[in-house]
Amino acid sequence: MNAAGPHLAALVISLAALAGLVALYRTIAARDAWAPLNRRFLFGIRLTMLIFAGRALVILTGVEAFRILILLAAALVPLAVLLLTEALLRRHAPRGAKLWVAAGTGLSCALALAAPWAGQAGLWALMAFQLTGLGLSGALVLRRDRASLSAAENIAAARLALSLVLIMPLAALDFVVPLMGVPIQPSGLAVLFLCWLAIGLGRTDEDHWRSLSGFGAVLAAAVLLTGFLALTLPLSPVDVAVTGAVILAVMLVPAIWRDALEQGDALRDLTLLRHIARAPASAGAFLDGLRAHPLVDGALLLDEADLPELDPDRLRAILSECPVLRRRDAAPDGEAADYAAHLFRRFGASHILLVRNRPLGLLALSMPELSASSRAEIEVDAVQRVAHLLAENG
Predict the structure, then answer these.
(1) Residue 270: phi, psi to the nearest 5?
(2) For 362, phi and psi rounded to 5 degrees?
C-alpha cells in the first residue's frame, strides 16, 4: 500500500460513516423531530456526525485544529447516550451516574480544549471516560424493568444495548490501533452498524429479518472480496485489515440507504388511515383489525372490570374532555394526571383512547416515539373518533 493509502482509507471510512448517519438522521427526523425521545437521539447523531466530519476535514485539509472539534464531540457522547437511555427507559439514572457523567463531560471538554498540551495522557483519560460513561448506560439498559415497558420499547432498548456492546470495544480501539501501526479507526464500522439497527426500529418483524439477511449478505460479500484480494495481491496483514474495513464500509452505505428509503415507503403504506378508510361496520371488527395493525400491534381493549381501582364516572369525565390521552402531554389537572399516569404505567401504554361511554370502553396502545410521527398522532385521533362513533351507534 502506498503512502497515500492509509489516509485515503481513513477518509473513505469517515465519509461512509457520515453518509450512514445522514440516512439515520433523515429517517428519525421524518418520524417526528420534536418528540422528546427523538430530540435526544438526534442530538447524539449530530455529535457523531461532527466527529466523522472533523476526521474527514483533518485528512482533507491537514488543519490539526479540527481535532479539537472531534474531541469536544467525543467528550459529549456519553452524556448524549445517558440522556437517550433515560428517555427510552422512562426512568432517571441514579444520582451517582449523573454526577460521574457530568463531571467527566466537563473534564473531557477541558482536556479537548487543551489538546495540544494534554498529549497522549489526555486521550487515555477521554477513552476511560467514554468507556465508563457508555458502560453505565449499558448497565441501566440491561437492568431495566422490562415489565414497565412495552414490547416495542423493550426491542428498542435491546438494540441500544447491542449497539453499546459493539461500540465500546471499537471506541477503545480508536485510541489503541494508531499505536499498533494500523492507520484506520474502526469506530466508523460500529457507527454504520448502529445506523442499520436504529433505522430498523420502525420495521415489522418480517421486514426486520429480511433486512438482517441482506445485512449478513453484505458482510459475507465483503469478507469474501477481502479474502480474494489477500490471496491474489501482495498485501501485508495490516493492508488486509485496512482493505477489508474500506470494502465493508463502502458496501454498507447503499445497504443502509436502501433500508432508510424502504422504511419511508413502509411508513407511508402502513398508515392508520388505510385501516380507517376500510373500517368494518361494527365497532368490534374495527377494533380487532386495529389491534393487529403493525403500528399499534398488541393494543389492549379495556372495560370497567379491568379497572376496579379507578372511579369509572371520574374516568369517563376525564376522557370526555380529552378522548385521547398521550403520555407525553400534560393532563389538565392533578387528579386527571394521576389517573392518566396510572393507566400509562399499568398497561405500558403511550395512548389511552375512549372507545365507548356506557359501559366504559378504553383502548390502550403503545407507539414508541422513535416509531411514531406527527401524522400518526393525527391518525390516532381519527381512529378514536371512528371507533367511538361505531360503538355508540352500533
Answers:
(1) -100, 25
(2) -125, 155
Neighbours of 6 (CB within 10 A): 18
List the grid coordinates of 175.
485510541
pLDDT band at 253 (very low <50, low <70, confident <90, very high): very high
How far from 181 is each of 16, 230, 242, CA to CA, in Å? 22, 19, 11
Quote the CA–CA distance of 327 and 148 in Å, as a whole number. Answer: 14
Pairing of strands 324-326, 361-365: unpaired
Q: Which three cell numbers stand for residue 276?
A: 380507517
Looking at residue 218, its amino acid is V
- CA 378 – CA 160 distance, rounded (Å): 28
Number of Cβ within a 10 Å radius of residue 203: 20
Please report, as a single letter, which amino acid is at residue 357.
N
Question: With the C-alpha atoms ordered 132, 133, 134, 140, is the resulting torsion angle positive or negative?
Answer: positive
State how far the Cα of 214 lies from the Cα of 206, in Å rounded to an integer.
Answer: 13
Whole-angstrom CA distances from 120 to 64, 123, 148, 178 are 15, 5, 44, 12
120, burial (CB in 10 Å: exposed 0-12, middle 13-18, buried 19+): exposed
List the one residue out of 72, 54, 52 whose CA is nearest residue 64: 54
In sequence order, the β-bridge partners of residue 302 are 362
- Classified as helix, coil or strand, 311 is coil
Length of the chain: 394
90 dihedral zone (left: phi>0; alpha: psi -120 to 50; beta) = left
Q: Which residues pair with 138 in a beta bridge?
A: none
What sign results for the dihedral spanned by CA atoms 255, 257, 262, 266? positive
| DSSP-derived 3-state class of residue 354 | strand
Cell numbers 439515520 correspond to what residue? 24
What distance in Å separates the CA atoms of residue 14 and residue 12, rounded to the nearest whole number? 5
Provide the mean pLDDT of the chain.
Answer: 79
Task: Give pLDDT tens digits for 177-190.
Answer: 665 656 677 788 88
